[in-house]
Description:
Radius of gyration: 16 Å
Mean pLDDT: 96
Bound molecules: fe (ii) ion
Distance between the termini: 38 Å
Amino acid sequence: xxxxxxxxxxxxxGENLSVVLNCxxxxxxxxxxILGNFQSGLYRNTEFKGDKLVIVKIGxxxxxxxxxxxxxxxxxxxxxxxxxxxxxxxxxxxxxxTVKLGDFTFNLWYFGEHLPGSLHKEHDFYETHTQxxxxxxMQKFHKEDERTLYERTLLSPxxxxxxxxxxHRSYPCHRYRAISKSILLSIESPYSIPKx
Length: 196
Ligand SMILES: [Fe+2]
């Protein structure tokens, strides 16, 4: 069974396709390209070191299999129990237990196909998201009305979106929306990420 445990590694040397998120200092990869702070990718058959690498082995299937969806539904918490808003009642939406590593808080979310998260604007933290499996998108809105959508950032496994907050930690109205069944990693930070 696939294990989505979140912890820091100091080295990637996997043969299996893995999402690697660099939560530490910039790394020069073996091909001399840079994997910066809070940048991520999908890697196999290469080796590199970092001080804070989050590595999620996913294997060759980039979509959420029925088996993985079943695991998320049985082990994780229905989001309606965490955030009891009507939109989430009976939704195919689950969240893992929270992992804190140093300053950062990590959660994994499972979204059913085509499922939108809630449209929101307020956070008392700086956030970003990394797509682990499936396909989805971050969406920005002019106001709290889905007809005012003005930017879509499509995400596939290994991709982390650019920050949505400004220098005052203000966010536009935004949400995540799954396209296929998705597993998304959220990261919350007490300060702006990525590092300048
Ligand atoms: Fe958000």
